[in-house]
Design brief:
With 419 residues, the protein is of the alpha/beta class. Helices cover 44% and strands 13% of the residues. The chain is built from 16 helices and 13 strands. The strands form 2 sheets. It has an 8-stranded mixed beta sheet with strand order 3-2-1-4-5-6-7-8, sandwiched between helices. A 5-stranded parallel beta sheet has the order 11-10-9-12-13, sandwiched between helices. Strand 12 (389-392), helix 16 and strand 13 form a beta-alpha-beta unit. The longest helix has 32 residues, at 205-236. The chain is elongated and about 80 Å long. The mean pLDDT is 97. It binds ligand SAJ. The site of ligand SAJ has 20 residues, from helix 9.
């Protein structure tokens, strides 16, 4: 299959780097997003997210006319759907963005097109997307109706790139390609091979869906183990960081790092898709989610004890005279992404939970963005001057360099083990 034009639906953390990378390999890429502001920013050569080197690539492909953004889908040889797949209040997957994307591209589909779902999805979502497309376009045939003879090929090719290293991992990681038929898989392989240097490994759509969920659940369960250890060690007065370093000297032990909880739109979400599909069977996966989700509450309780100790030592002070500085709001180091961030959760709940004043420091967000957070966001220097207690919530590289010295004589709760 030959591809000249590609349309990427959803220009977020995955869609935009993917669109830009394809464009940098010579494809004519049409990026589609419902957010007019994002579309305008991209068309002016800028980016609306933080990801190392992405600005340079986007600027170059927009300048050469290889990437153009719009809010209205246009015909193309292939379509990549990279929209969010959140969960609802009851932790059931919410496919409304995939449904909307399917309905938006259906009118411009043409015989011979390939449609790829990249969004992390519950098992069965690719078949569901194909069903929505078929419903909207009864004049075309789809793999669920015509198998290998279908007019439109459909595949699931989950993204697996690490935020902060997206451009490198997009090219180097192996790619799981799950076509609804072998022909669909081959079509998708020939598209990704335009830039993927890793191996493109073929399977079916359901296995590809489950594979992505499995990878993130594996990590979630392992982080839960580290988080549980940190709570046990606190109780037993053992330094968990030292403990993990020691245990990891065993040739078959590799424990991950505890933190304030698990954030992001992936690891904190995807395991619930497995639980939703097999609620009685997915016991460990569900417990791990609960352990990780509980960690922010535990951090707040720890801060409460520190505040209590501080007031005991300073009888003239009352709780509202105490200022707690939350250092970091992003869900992990060196990014600006606050989605599902346990750090933001902790900072936002602290005043109500304990009664202290809270200031927050997040070097990776703009002043304008900070204004919308309903938090007193200050510079690190200002926080050092005014706060009584410091909680290290994110291990940003800058923090790793400066905090050990800056917090030397301060009351510190270090959820990341960097000071
Ligand atoms: N975390 C810890 N301790 C650790 C590692 C991570 O507390 O030892 C926390 C982080 O601070 C963060 C959360 O876990 O809050 C998730 O961070 P992460 O770096 O583990 O993963 P993500 O969410 O940035 O990206 C993951 C990756 N999946 C795996 O590594 C299996 C990435 O490859 C996926 O593409 C991405 O999810 C996704 O989009 O699904």
């Amino acid at each position: 299959m030959k591809f000249e034009t590609l349309s990427v639906i959803g220009l977020g953390y995955i869609g935009l780097p993917t669109a830009a990378t394809f464009a940098s390999r010579g494809l004519k890429v049409i990026g589609v997003d419902v957010n007019q502001q994002a579309v305008d920013t991209i068309n002016s050569g800028g980016i609306h997210i933080i990801e190392p080197d992405l600005d340079i690539v986007v600027q170059s492909v927009v300048q050469t006319g290889r990437l153009r953004a719009t809010t209205t889908p246009e015909p193309a040889d292939a379509f990549i759907v990279a929209v969010p797949t959140p969960f609802k209040d009851d932790k059931q997957p919410d496919l409304k963005y995939i449904e909307a994307a399917s309905k938006a591209i259906a009118p411009v589909l043409q015989k011979g097109n390939l449609v790829i779902l990249e969004s992390t999805s519950p098992v069965g979502a690719t078949e569901q997307m194909a069903a929505w497309l078929a419903e909207a376009r009864p004049d075309l045939t789809f793999p669920q109706q015509a198998g290998e003879d279908a007019d439109i090929c459909v595949a699931h090719c989950p993204e697996r790139v690490l935020p902060g290293k997206v451009l490198v991992e997009l090219v180097n990681n192996d790619r799981v390609i799950g076509g609804m038929t072998p022909k669909c898989s081959q079509a998708a392989v020939s598209l990704y091979k335009l830039f993927v240097q890793g191996e493109c490994v073929v399977t079916n759509a359901r296995t590809a869906e489950m594979c992505k969920l499995t990878e993130n659940s594996f990590r979630d369960v392992n982080i839960a183990f580290a988080n549980e250890l940190s709570i046990i060690c606190d109780k037993l007065d053992i330094n968990v960081w030292e403990l993990i370093k020691l245990a990891n000297r065993h040739p078959r032990v590799n424990i991950l790092q505890p933190g304030p909880g698990v954030g992001g739109h992936c690891i904190a979400v995807d395991p619930w898709f497995i639980v939703a599909s097999a609620p009685d069977e997915a016991k460990l996966i569900s417990t791990a989610r609960q352990v990780n989700d509980h960690k922010p509450e535990w951090v707040i309780e720890t801060v409460k004890s520190a505040v209590f100790d501080l007031l005991q030592a300073n009888p003239g002070k009352s709780v509202k005279d105490v200022t707690v500085a939350c250092l970091g709001l992003a869900f992990k180091a060196d990014i600006d992404d606050l989605r599902e961030s346990p750090s933001l959760d902790i900072a936002s709940k602290m005043t109500d939970a304990i009664g202290v004043a809270v200031v927050a420091v997040e070097p990776n967000i703009s002043a304008d963005f900070a204004l919308g957070l309903q938090l007193d966001v200050v510079s690190l220097d200002e926080a050092i001057d005014i706060a009584d207690i410091f909680i290290v919530l994110v291990d940003h590289s800058d923090f790793k360099r400066s905090l050990p010295e800056l917090l030397k004589d301060k009351v510190v709760i270090d959820t990341r083990g960097i000071v």
